[in-house]
Amino acid sequence: MAYNYPPEKLSVYLSDDGGSILTFYAMWEASQFAKHWIPFCKRYKLEPRAPAAYFSSSDNSSDMSHHEERLSMKILYEEMTSRVDAIVESGKVPEELKANHKGFSQWKSEMTSKKHPPIVQILIDGKDPNALDNVGNALPTFVYMAREKNPEYHHNFKAGAMNSLLRVSSVISNSPIILNVDCDMYSKNSDSIRDALCFFLDEEKGCDIAFVQYPQNYNNITKNDTYGNTLSIMNEVDLCGFDSWGGPPYIGTGCFHRRESLCGMKYTKDYKEDWNRGSERNPPDDIRKLEEKAESLATCTYELNTLWGHEVGLKYGVAVEDVMTGLMIQCRGWKSVYYNPPQKGFLGVGPTTLAQTILQHKRWGEGNLQIFLSKYCTFIYGHGKIKLGLQIAYCINNLWAANSVPTLYYVIVPSLSLLRGISLFPKMTSPWFIPFSYVMVGKQTYSLIEALLTREITVQGWWNIQRMWLIKRLTSYLYGTLAALSKILGVSKMGFTISAKISGEDASKRYEQEIMEFDASSLTLAVIEFVALLNLACLVCATSRAVMRGWAIVLEMYFLQILLCGLVVAINVAIYEGLLLRKDKGSIPWSVTLTTLGFVMLVSLVSRV
Ligand SMILES: O=c1ccn([C@@H]2O[C@H](COP(=O)(O)OP(=O)(O)O[C@H]3O[C@H](CO)[C@@H](O)[C@H](O)[C@H]3O)[C@@H](O)[C@H]2O)c(=O)[nH]1
Ligand SMILES: [Mn+2]
């Protein structure tokens, strides 16, 4: 709300899929606090303008009045958050508070997060001449919405929520440009709107731009990024590459969309944006009427027999609705722009445990593969519509999950062959040894240099990314592949497991100390544990053979296999610690360790027969 942008042209919506009165209460509090906060931000040109982020950074103002005002604002903010916390804790909004706004009366006792009517409440109507902040300036429009939920109708997760939001906003503000941000993110730069608009308003090149995508950055990544969650390589390398072929994919958050292109319009050469479309509405005499109209657009039945979720709005049925929607927009003739300014636009919360990371990537891997295996595969659907370079670029992500199959082969078969004494790769004396070792060494060196050049990744961080590369391929992507296949065969339906935003105190501490948290289920981790122990056993076996027969012969025959096996062992040190050495709550239970050991012994014995 505090963006450096004319408030009368700005409307902020919050979509609450749970339909909770507590969220509404927190929003009502925020609408009151905004009257003090916005003028304070504008007076001192503060950054960042999300209060929690601003107050967590130190005060380096030399101006006395700023300093004093900051203190009183901080007290106001803390009083508000403690009121909200206390009410959330109690789970009930007291009756006397409900008298403050008509919106509270919308909640009835029988309503649950899974079953409730649509609720739209305009907390601040920017068109109302009396909606002013405490120094008399206009305020942006501020709207709470919860679309109708009913177990009888599929809600289509985030895509469903976004589509309701698109319709609701069309009757309230109908702005030509829409910014969409995930619930776990905040804005870091108050100029982001102006920056993004520069692209759309460019008289020569702006007409065919459908969306301006900012990178997805997290504010909770530790120094060495234990779970390899930073998207730095994607942000600094991959997305820039996309940009040169027609534009980045839509990645779900930190994205400015042209309303019309998101609503299914095809790009034609004579297309002209109507920049005045949003300002047509007059202040209503009866705001409740407007809200009711908006509510009627957010019912479960509204979309039945319409093109919403297919040709209009965000696409349903894919775990990565964002990538799919972006691809469809590009195939309708639009371009997109990737904008990655040095001053980050948006910051969010990345996963902080192994289970959260695995879960998020399973959804991403599965959804992307689903696109590749469907009629929307970029080579088929995009053929003739987007450039070949872009079709191929999409495959980087679309084939993440499928990559798990060759990975699984490469970390099991060469090691088992080593155990049996079968040489798979060229001998050291063969000329073919050179290309094989070049690929192995070259690939790793390249990725290390690439990582260090981003300036955001340390050497240890790069190593952690390599470890997670393997772990993800043997968990998220493997299960993602199975899930995508079972969906295609019609065995199961799509789900969207929301990434957890919080974890326990103990676990948070381990996250800060960069100790891996093996909180995923034993079944999820079974493959990676098996691979880690199997490779350790094979390496020990190969070493003892070398000691007995002489290193020279063994290395000549098996150098590349031993190197591969050794790399897998080195990369999995954290797994051995979790399996064998650690005793804290985040380690792997003994029962799992013993079962895996037993299984590894069995496989080794069988393979030697
Ligand atoms: O039924 C649902 C499920 C999710 N969401 C919203 O979807 C967003 C993304 O969910 P989150 O659990 O934070 O997922 P991430 O893995 O962090 O999200 C990334 O990946 C998703 C696709 O898998 C994209 O939709 C997101 O924009 C992108 O940030 C959040 O704002 C949620 O509030 C809903 O509104 N309704
Ligand atoms: Mn998220």
TrEMBL record:
Annotated binding of Mn(2+), by residue: K158, D182
Transmembrane feature ranges: 520-542, 554-576, 588-606
Keywords from the named record: Cell wall biogenesis/degradation, Glycosyltransferase, Golgi apparatus, Membrane, Transferase, Transmembrane, Transmembrane helix
Record Gene3D superfamilies: Spore Coat Polysaccharide Biosynthesis Protein SpsA, Chain A (3.90.550.10)
Cellular compartments annotated: Golgi apparatus membrane
GO cellular component, as recorded: Golgi membrane
Top-level taxon of the source organism: Eukaryota
Keyword Magnesium listed: no
PANTHER family reported in the protein's UniProt record: X-BOX TRANSCRIPTION FACTOR-RELATED
Protein name, UniProt field: Uncharacterized protein
Species assigned in the record: Rhynchospora breviuscula
